[in-house]
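hey can u check if this looks right to u? its 336 residues, i copy pasted from the old doc so theres a chance i mangled smth
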Amino acid sequence: MRWILAVLSMALLLAGSPAGAAERVKVGVLKLTSSAPIFIGVEKGFFKEHGVDPELVFFQAAAPIATALAAGQLEIGATGLTAALYNIVLGGEKLWIVADKGREWPGYPLTAIVVQKELWEAGLRTVRDLKGKRIGVTQLGSTFHYHIGNILEKEGLTLEDVKIVPLQALPSVLEALKGKQVEAILIPQPFAGTAEAQGFGKILAWAGDLFPWQIATVFYSGKFAAERPHAVNFMKGYVKASRYYHDTVLVQKDGRVQPGPHYDEVVAITAKYTGAKPEIIRLGFPFQDRNGRLLVPDIERQMAWWVRHGFVKSTILLKDIVDTSFVEAAAKAVPE
């Protein structure tokens, strides 16, 4: 009898532990190289170690993820910061930006300006050569809209000097360049590498080399953030995955990435979830903070730009949209 009670007690203890009672949460993501830390965390079981079982829900663009989060269809979003997200918060919904999920950063490829190969061969070589051209992006108010706008302004041009063409989904953006509906596109890896590999596009520049910024984040719904133990547990798995990712594919020496011991594994995981060929994935991974910490001041800069261009009515106080306490708690709790 005592033996049976001991077994039952052990079973109850296991059921109450993170490994035995993983909570299912829906996470909105894109099939991009920048989603690699999420893919690693799922594939390696880092989230489940901390009692969370993510269900990945794939989207074709970033803005719909924020909309789905606000509608209660997701608990977590892991994608780019868009005007739509800021407008949702201004409309009264509570969303929290909680962690880094990728920065446009010099020396680390994420989003590329890709031009028609024929135009490249004809001499189109600089951002200023884009004047008067049609540039494809996913949506107005997207990360790509923000990025090209800032790059143009840095080069002495404006958005009025080009024609921004919204094409809704990343595959459609790629096809528009292939079909010569636009002269240039802004598109992230692995799509940029695919355009070159298939011979119809040429990478003009990696956009992060021209204008660095906090392009992508993890954000929580207000409801999920209020469930603080679960929200911190997800972040523990994310911090562990971020460290694994950083130490494997981001460490540089003399300006060149020095692949870590798990490099081939991370390439394979990323290829599996994105559907891209490993040789395209190997073109490079985007930068992300090793512990998933945000570049908080940049979020304020972004809001000011959107307001200036009429996509957002007013800025939001950082304390009403950013909460770094989850990632800070997780970074302290997860051992190195």
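Residues 22-103+214-333 form a domain with the D-Maltodextrin-Binding Protein; domain 2 fold (CATH 3.40.190.10).
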